[in-house]
Amino acid sequence: MGEKASIFQTVQIGVESAPGTAVAANKKLMATSLVPSIKTDSKVFQPQGLKYPAFAVLNKEWSEYKIEGDITYTDIVYLLSSLISAPTPVQQGGTAAYKWTFTSNSTAEDTAKTFTVEQGDANTAWRSAGVRVSGLNLSFSREETKLSGDAIGLALETGITKTSSSSEIAAKVVLPTQLKLYMADDQSGLSTPTEITRGFALEWSLTDKSKLVWPIGQDPIAIESTPKLEGTLSVATDTVGVGFITTMRNGATKWFRIKAVGDLIATDYYYTVQIDFPAMIADVGDFGDQDGLYLIKYSLQGIHDSSWGKSFQIDVTTTLSSL
């Protein structure tokens, strides 16, 4: 048996048909890392009169994953299908382009996908079933487009043979040069939005969406918890940027759109990622310098809009027709 060199500890995923029932992990996300860790909850017992504990018992065990990577027009479909919902993509004009629309039901459970995740090499490997993305943070700027997040799953199973002949999901990266940032006063205004020409960074995050509960004698089950829907916006202190202070004082809502348009897939259809969401200004950060320009940072609170019937919508146009 060879040594466990870190460079060869690849991660593969498989899309489960039934949550928690392991499947072959036959996909490799080429722009996303999922780093596993074993989590436990143990109880230590120390009887009266004894200097040291008498024993420790394991109460719970599960797995967690740290998610890191670049935002792509490809991997993002897998992550959002597990975090939010699993839509049926719509073929665009009979071409190789498919549009995925991700929304969350504000008053009922979302139907999301779970994964079997394998890690290891030809020597030894392990896996977790029932892995569900519980949070993502998407960060957009002129320097980079990055994502981070978390996932939870069942306890790690050791001593497996890693699935062979997995297919690679080509990394089609969202480039900073492909971004545009817009805003409007209402949802209909996003049809002809105002471009924010002095916006320097936008973060959008949906976290704490799932948690594990523990029935007696059963594996843990994942349920939806109360999620956090937040963001931040860094803008120049021009009329538009300072104007958000009045928006905050008035308790008004602004509608935001971050949109990336990549390469042409087929006539009239491009790789696209678009996030639309209404938000209120929750807090104002400190003024600061960036490359000689004076900026201000706002904390955004994502909200549900009753007229629209949702809190956000993410549209991804890519060449993937299925997971």
How would you characterize the overall build of this protein?
The strands form 3 sheets. This protein has a 17-stranded antiparallel sheet that branches. The mean pLDDT is 95. It is globular, with a radius of gyration of 22 Å. The protein has 2 helices and 21 strands. With 323 residues, the chain is mainly β. The two termini are 34 Å apart. A hairpin with a 4-residue loop joins strand 7 and strand 8. The longest helix has 11 residues. It has one domain.
The helix content is under 10%
Round the mean pLDDT to the nearest integer and report it: 95
Coarse structural class: mainly beta
Order of helices and strands: EEEEHEEEEEEEEEEEEEHEEEE
**What is the count of β-strands?**
21
- Strand content is over 45%
Spans of at least 5 consecutive residues with low confidence: none
* Termini separation: 34 Å
Shape category: globular
User: How many individual helices?
Assistant: 2
Largest sheet: 17 strands, antiparallel
| Overall tally of domains | 1
Radius of gyration: 22 Å
Task: Present the secondary structure layout.
Layout: E1 10-15, E2 27-29, E3 32-45, E4 55-70, H1 75-83, E5 90-91, E6 98-102, E7 115-120, E8 125-141, E9 145-153, E10 157-160, E11 167-169, E12 179-184, E13 194-195, E14 199-207, E15 210-213, E16 221-224, E17 228-236, H2 239-249, E18 253-266, E19 269-290, E20 293-302, E21 313-318
Parallel strand pairs: 2-11
Antiparallel strand pairs: 1-7, 3-4, 4-9, 5-6, 6-21, 7-8, 8-9, 8-10, 8-14, 12-13, 12-18, 14-17, 15-16, 17-20, 18-19, 19-20, 19-21
